DUF5615 domain-containing protein (Candidatus Terraquivivens tikiterensis), 114 residues
Amino acid sequence: MVKFLLDENVPLSVLRLLRVKGYEAWRPRELGLERAKNNTLAKYALDHGMIIITLDEDFFKLSSEKFKDVKIVYIRLHPRRPDIIRQLMEENINEMLQKIKEKQTIILTQHGIE
């Protein structure tokens, strides 16, 4: 079962989409991690086999060796319209899950996966 940890900046519509599609998807607040720093979220995701979805490029700055295996989907989109973000996730989820098996970080843009 694929599990996702959605950063606080990811729209709730993405959370609902993932759950409707049968994935486990959580926001930090639901896990008692409200206001947690990125390294805390990364450790939690790593410990629980979760893929982080974020709009925050600061996750790329996790420099510690212990975070090298964290799987991250970074959504790079401006402006950050929730409806477009949800649509991008829906259109690219299958390809994203295939590519995340091969690499640690996926960048999702309005043009698809980089």
Remarks:
- The chain has a mean pLDDT of 93.
- Residues 3-113 form a domain with the Rossmann fold fold (CATH 3.40.50).
- The longest strand covers residues 50-54.
- The chain has one domain: 3-113.
